[in-house]
């Protein structure tokens, strides 16, 4: 059997040492979506693989709360234009219930992490800066900024402006970090001289007084926190990209071995491209957890190698994903690495639950239907959790062909049935009581079609028309098994009668 990618990566990492810090992170500037989730689940899979190999390993998640707001995103009120350029932790939360803008987007994500059982230590960039953990690195960086500028220009093939500084001071007057400029610094006093476009000029302490620019912040952080493994998107992995410049800066400036890189591909929204919350083109993790069990959401990421892009479609693909997960060999690594403690291995295909809840009026009817069609519902709470998932999925994402309504009366369209169709339906009404399982029903329908020399597909269609007034519907054997037999017999009997105007 092929080694799972997380184990293969863990083996490579263990060649470098026994003790590891796996880092991942995000800028919480908008809803944290399924696309962003790939990073943290990838990190967690490798973390779990390392733990299984008895490595001394820790997982951290860094929220880049000190990053500035870049623009007024479509989901923000226009009034947020006054906050452009301020760090996210200094901006008010859009709903008024969180401590700041960053927390507004971070909190639902942290709840999702809990559901996904990703036990990362959460760090916030503003706290790391304000606690002074960066201070010595910032001084070293300012002292060597010419060397750093050379590395950046040479490696990334871009010219830096003459007044470039690796440090973005935070203006004490207007809170901007994008309109400020460093004019000098004092290593001994650990202060920076700065000016701001708002008119402010002054000297501020390095600690909490601003942040390093991204390409320098990243390698500085590796050395400050001791990061040895980090997954990141392919945009950072290009030649001359931020990992390329980062590893050189790490080695030459901070004398630190860059982390083992795990480059991952995007999760694409089927037919729409890569997910971007800034373009409103994304599904948040909490939204997905309403329709998917956490272990299946983990499995979506864990089943694919990081370098392969994932095409995600909350409609049919998702339905198939759940069934694929439920059918998996529980000894397979992808299955094991997807597990959560509360995970429930269902023997009821999700597709059948989707059918059953559309047949059932309420919860007890649902359980009856599942039992009638041969499923074990002893673990009622687990079954009902899946049923709740299915209900939300039907409301929000199900393609139209999955939805159906059982017609209270015999549809008018049955009038056009042929004599053979009527014969077959009559036989069906007579024999239905003899069959119990979905398989028996399925096979019985084929036999009946054969006995009256009717194409089985035509009979299938006649059955759907009689019940749903549509020419197709859910898998027939299971569907009929889930319905009340007296009702079915009466309906097929009725449909078999020649109807006179
Ligand atoms: Zn809020
Ligand atoms: Zn200012």
UniProtKB/TrEMBL annotation:
EC number: 6.1.1.6
UniProt motif ('HIGH' region) ranges: 28-36
GO terms for cellular component: cytoplasm
Alphabetic keyword roster: Aminoacyl-tRNA synthetase, ATP-binding, Cytoplasm, Ligase, Nucleotide-binding, Protein biosynthesis
GO molecular function per UniProt: ATP binding; lysine-tRNA ligase activity; tRNA binding
A Pfam family of this chain: tRNA-synt_1f
GO biological process: lysyl-tRNA aminoacylation
Protein's name in the database: Lysine--tRNA ligase
Native species: Candidatus Argoarchaeum ethanivorans
Originating gene: lysS
